[in-house]
Amino acid sequence: MRALEPPTTPRTALRSRRGLLQTALGCAGWLLVIPLLRLTQEPPLLGSSFALPIWVAGFLFAAAISITAILIAAIRRSWGVALAGLLLAATGVFATTRFNSKVDIVDYQYREHRTALAALAEDYRTGRLPKGPLTLPPSLHTLSPSGYAYAGDTAVFVQMWQNWRHESGTGLAYFADPPTDRTIVNTADGDSGHPQREVGGGWWWIS
Question: TM spans, by residue (predicted)?
Fold first, then answer.
């Protein structure tokens, strides 16, 4: 008498309705991450301390959905669905990390506002900027939602982020002469920082 064999789970063809549905669900997380990343590019999240954690959470959520879909397809030996899910997951990772190449938001914001910052630096070098608080042009409003900026004797500073009490902040500063480790820059009404590194064009990240 032949032993009964355990029932096998039917494979799901990639081009079947179920296969296409599983593949779509596997990449759904990445499609949700893109709008989430765009949200972190706009005030009030732009430049805030919440932007990176939100991006990381969205990335992990999308990755978890993709991995789950791939594992389910592999367990069912639906290799076509698993391979398609793997390729889409790799595409999602590439797209989100490239889109969020602001994994360092400082470099990203500098690149996005390079032209306006270069014009501001030129005005500072030629003495066209008045000393004291500055009114930033509209092209820099997305860089500095608070609008906190000023020109001093040795540098012009543009704030990128400040806390809700306006007592702590970070930003970009352009120096007429290269700064040192001891250079101090006021970054908010109740805070000051030091140059951390040059991001380009004579502009330094201050924190």
Answer: 20-38, 50-72, 79-99
